C-alpha cells in the first residue's frame, strides 16, 4: 500500500472517531485529498469530505471525478471506502 493511502485511511479513521465532525481532522483529510488530486482514491475521499461538509454540489463533482457514487450513510460509505483502500 502506498504511504499516502495509509495516511488517508488513518486520517479518515480519526475523523470517523470524532463523528465526522468538521474541524482539524476534516481539514487534514481534505488537505491530503487535495495534495493527491487526480488519483481516484483521493478524489473519492474528497467527495466524502464535501458530503460531510454538506456541500452536495462539490461532493457530486468529486464523485464524478472518482468514478464513484454516494452510498448509504457517511459512516457506511467510509466503511466501504476503507475496505477498498485497504485492499489497494
Fold and architecture overview:
By secondary structure, the protein is an all-alpha fold. It has five helices and no strands. The chain has helices at residues 3-17, 24-35, 40-53, 56-66, 74-87. The chain is globular and about 30 Å long. The mean pLDDT is 95.
Give a brief description.
This protein is mostly helical and 88 residues long. It has helices spanning 3-17, 24-35, 40-53, 56-66, 74-87.
- What would you report as the Rg, rounded to the nearest angstrom? 11 Å
Tell me how many strands there are. Answer: 0
Could you list the spans in which at least 5 consecutive residues all have pLDDT below 50? Answer: none
Number of helices: 5
Work out the helicity level.
Answer: over 70%
**Major sheet summary line:** none
Shape: globular
User: How many angstroms separate the termini?
Assistant: 6 Å
Give helix and strand order, one letter per element, not per position: HHHHH
On the 0 to 100 scale, the average pLDDT is 95
Structural class: mainly alpha
List keywords for this structure.
88 residues, mainly alpha, 0% strand, globular
Task: Please write out the topology.
Elements: H1 3-17, H2 24-35, H3 40-53, H4 56-66, H5 74-87
